[in-house]
Design goal:
Layout (H helix, E strand, L loop, with lengths): L1 E3 L12 H13 L2 H12 L7 H6 L2 H5 L4 H11 L14 H10 L15 H6 L3 E5 L10 E5 L5 E2 L4 E2 L1 H13 L3 E4 L17 E8 L5 E10 L14 E4 L9 E5 L2 E5 L17 H14 L6 E9 L2 E8 L5 H7 L7 H10 L4 H5 L4 E3 L2
């Protein structure tokens, strides 16, 4: 993953206190050669708002917003536990699975045993999801279901238990995971015909360093696909503090669309109340409390099942576009933005000087 910090005209934001604070911190603490590099990156069109963001985010939102290009640099400052990825439980999926098991947080059953135990574990499963260790945006995720004959099927591929176990071993050796596939709560099934829907809860440490829920978005697959990621063209519905959904948004062909109902089922999304909403938010805050010393802001993906919320993963670099689109406002105007500013203002000179112009994490 590449992080670039660009500074220039694209980052001039007269009324955007968040971006001004970020840019000013770099300018005051960086050596001249790094500032020149940041300016050259800006002149090359790197940083600031992308063409696709300009197409879907209104100018008033962008005027007070945080672009996807700049948020990574901000998040690396706010989340010192980011690097190295191998030791980051919000990037390394195996570490995350071990963390939730250790703290007894509700989560999908995940295979964490020894290699010789894999085949026996599979015999007790009928529906599993396989994920690479460091994947993002749903890339590399596959779902396998057991057929009536006892084999494993992924749509175009069928394997016996032995063959499937042999196929999984290299994935596990590379740090990937295989876990039980969960089913959506019956109250969400009609608006989630494909992949498991997840509630994204963004938590940020408040002024007392307690985890505070600042944004809630319900992510829904727009078709019978394997993932619900917004970046894959799926739906995102804003969720208010009571758990009630608003009209969903999606980006298709570079254009923003809003819909009160699901495009595949026709079922209304706006007005649906997310089951176990308060429990899900409490779970996110509890999980953040465990990681508060390494991460200031975290985006949690939580499945809502018939038995309650289940923690799927946490994200150290939660996307800003989805939140700003569903809220119709720039991050700087939100409570979340005020907490970003609170923590950026308290960074030490050493923190700012350690912010690299370019960071590459394998």
């Amino acid at each position: 993953m590449l992080t670039l910090r660009a500074l220039g005209a694209a980052h001039a934001a007269a009324d955007n206190a968040l971006m001004n604070l970020y840019a000013d911190g770099l300018r005051r603490h960086w050596p001249i050669h790094r500032l020149i590099g940041a300016r050259l990156l800006s002149l090359a069109g790197i940083g600031g708002w992308s063409r696709s963001e300009r197409a879907v985010l209104p100018q008033p939102v962008r005027a007070h917003g945080l672009s996807m290009a700049d948020r990574r640099g901000v998040h690396r400052l706010l989340n010192p536990g980011t690097a190295p990825f191998s030791g980051n439980p919000l990037k390394n999926k195996r570490l995350f699975a071990e963390l939730v098991v250790k703290h007894a947080l509700p989560h999908p059953q995940t295979f964490l045993g020894k290699e010789r135990e894999l085949q026996e574990w599979l015999t007790r499963q009928s529906d599993v999801v396989v994920k690479p260790a460091f994947g993002s945006h749903g890339r590399g995720i596959t779902r396998w279901r057991r057929t009536p004959s006892g084999d494993w099927d992924a749509g175009r591929t069928t394997m016996t238990d032995n063959a499937f176990a042999a196929c999984l071993r290299p994935v596990l050796k590379r740090g990937g995971i295989v876990q039980q596939a969960l089913s959506a709560h019956p109250g969400l099934e009609t608006i989630a015909p494909g992949a498991l829907p997840t509630l994204r809860v963004v938590t940020c440490l408040d002024e007392r360093n307690e985890a505070e829920p600042c944004a809630h978005v319900l992510r829904l697959a727009s078709s019978a696909g394997a993932v619900d990621n917004f970046s894959a063209g799926n739906l995102a519905a804003p969720v208010d503090s009571t758990g009630r959904c608003g009209a969903a948004v999606s980006i298709r062909g570079g254009q923003l669309t809003r819909s009160p109902g699901h495009p595949l089922t026709g079922q209304m999304i706006a007005g649906v109340t997310v089951p176990f909403f308060r429990d899900a938010v409490a779970l996110a805050c509890t999980a953040h409390g465990i990681l508060r010393h390494s991460f200031t802001v975290i985006g949690w993906d939580i499945a809502i099942t018939k038995d309650g919320p289940s923690l799927i993963e946490g994200n150290w670099n939660p996307g800003t576009q989805m939140v700003q689109l569903t809220e119709g406002a720039g991050l700087d105007t939100m409570r979340l933005g005020s907490l970003y500013r609170h923590h950026l203002a308290r960074l030490s000179s050493r923190d700012w000087r350690s912010a690299a112009l370019l960071s590459w994490d394998r």
